[in-house]
From TrEMBL:
Record domain RNA polymerase sigma factor 70 region 4 type: where: 30-80
GO biological process: DNA-templated transcription initiation
The protein, known as: RNA polymerase subunit sigma-70
Any GO molecular function: DNA binding
Length: 87
């Protein structure tokens, strides 16, 4: 699987979504919502849910406590839930 760092600007979000295997409209909507998150939430979400890293691995990569990673994942899920309810 190709991993493009989420902090790098992505020109074509559809192309990146296809790289990750998203083809259905509902998955594309979710992916679009993830990409609209602030960087501090987006990066852990991409690493955890799309790249399948553990919270301990993400903490090591991002040089932050594991609890911070867990908190950001929790808050990101809440933001995504609200975003998708609005649509």
């Amino acid at each position: 699987m190709l991993f493009r760092p989420p902090w790098r600007k992505i020109e074509d979000i559809g192309e990146y979504a296809e790289t990750l295997g998203f083809e259905e409209e509902s998955y594309l909507d979710l992916f679009q919502a993830v990409m609209e998150l602030d960087k501090k939430y987006r990066v852990p979400v991409l690493l955890f849910y799309y790249e399948r890293y553990s919270t301990a691995e993400i903490a090591s990569i991002l040089k932050m406590p594991e609890k911070t990673v867990s908190t950001r994942l929790f808050r990101a899920k809440a933001k995504l839930k609200n975003y998708l309810k609005e649509e």
